[in-house]
Amino acid sequence: MIPREQPLSIQISARPEVKLRPGESVALTVIKRIQGNKWAVGLKGRVLSASSDLELMPGRSYQASVSRSGGKLVLRLQEPAGSSLRELLRREGLQTGGATEQVVASLLRSGLGIKEKTISQLLEALKRLKLEPRRHSRLLAILLDKKIALSSRGLAALVQELAFGEEDLPQGRHYRQRKMPQEARDTARELKTLLNAADSSAQNPLQLFNHLKGGGQNWIVIPYCFAWGQGQIRGTIRLRFQPGRQEPDPLVLSAHPGGGERWFFHLHRTPRGRSLQIFSNRQAGVEGLAPSLRELKTKLHNLAVEVDDTIHEEGDFDGFSLPADLPFYQGVNTMG
Questions:
Q1: Are the beta carbons of 109 and 320 closer than 8 angstroms?
Q2: Separation in Å, CA 66 to CA 10, 63, 107
Q3: What does residue 94 show for φ and ψ, rounded to 5 degrees?
């Protein structure tokens, strides 16, 4: 475990051939989570085991400085100020880790101010609805951004719609199962049908959510349900529309094929074009899916979409924004 006085540190087990000197600055790449707080990291061309209480992002590179603590080598991450969330929470006297940290990060990503009252509202709603903070605090923050009160009587039904397909949540109204499209034109037609249905005049919580605009981020959510093999695959299409842009960015597809398995496909713009990152909680690993993933990568490459080679841990994703999309904030308003 990492000593508490070094919150942005990683402790490594370095072999003798990996020469590290205290004070040296090195590049560190996170390869994957092994179990719990154990990680596999790449350092100076070697794969090493490491331990850290930080929620690292597989595939991401960090700059770190080398030091020693209790006879162990410790790498202190040289994160930019905007991503040192835990350090800032400590500075403001707020609890680090757990639900509070997830709530604060969700409020920041939604462009909302950080107030003690707001944090308390989200924590209370998470507890009342028995929601998992890591996966659902962002949903609640987006509701606040759309001026939907977390004390609303229909809140539980709306959350069911927004997280449609997740097996650990009660499901709301039944969505008609459609045949999985085989051709691109059929897929486009089905998506258009789903979009029109989400914008219907029927009075339901989801229709209200999609019509209300947020302060700076306007998210709409479209549930879907398709026949898939002998079962079905359910989930949502999440689109963010921003002022002055004709096309949504990003587009997030959540897919839940059953058995508690969750997938998220995050398509977003980059300076070089479009990029896709994939997040999954698949316990059995993704090795058996390699042929399908290679086919997906080839098809998207033909559409000028870059696909990240790493399948990231679903726990690093809030269902809407990439882990790195966390703006810098100067302080926390404890007066409102």
A1: yes
A2: 10, 10, 33
A3: -100, 155
Residue 232: exposure state from Cβ atoms within 10 A (0-12, 13-18, ≥19): middle
Say what the pTM is.
0.68
List of domains in the chain = 9-79 (2.40.50), 85-316 (no CATH)
Determine the pLDDT at residue 291: 78
Structure tokens at 112: 């909302």
The rounded mean pLDDT for the chain is 76
pLDDT at 6 over 70: no
Is 3's pLDDT higher than 80? no
pLDDT confidence band for 176 (50 / 70 / 90): low
Q: How far is CA 301 from CA 96, 125, 242, 294, 296, in A?
A: 40, 42, 26, 10, 8
SS3 state of residue 48: strand
Q: 64 by DSSP, 3-state: which?
A: strand
- Rounded to an integer, what distance in angstroms lies between the CA atom of residue 104 and that of residue 94? 10
Structure tokens at 326: 């966390």
Q: Give Cα 88 to chain centroid, integer Å.
A: 20
Does residue 267 register a pLDDT over 50? yes
CA–CA dist 71, 77 (Å, integer):
19
Beta-strand pair 72-77/178-179: unpaired
The more confidently predicted of residues 237 and 203 is 237
- Integer Cα distance of 26 and 11 in angstroms: 14
If you average pLDDT over residues 98-121, what whole number do you get? 84
Q: Tell me what pLDDT residue 242 has.
A: 76
Q: What is the DSSP string of 155-178?
A: HHHHHHHHTTT-TTS---SPPPPE
pLDDT of residue 201: 47
Q: Are 181 and 194 a contacting pair, CB within 8 Å?
A: no
Q: How many CB atoms lie within 10 A of CB 120?
A: 12
User: What whole-number distance in Å separates Cα of residue 99 and Cα of residue 105?
Assistant: 10
The answer to whether 88 and 100 are in contact (CB under 8 A) is no
Q: Per the structure block, which two tokens stand in for 273?
A: 């074009």
With cut-offs at 50, 70 and 90, classify the pLDDT of residue 335: very low
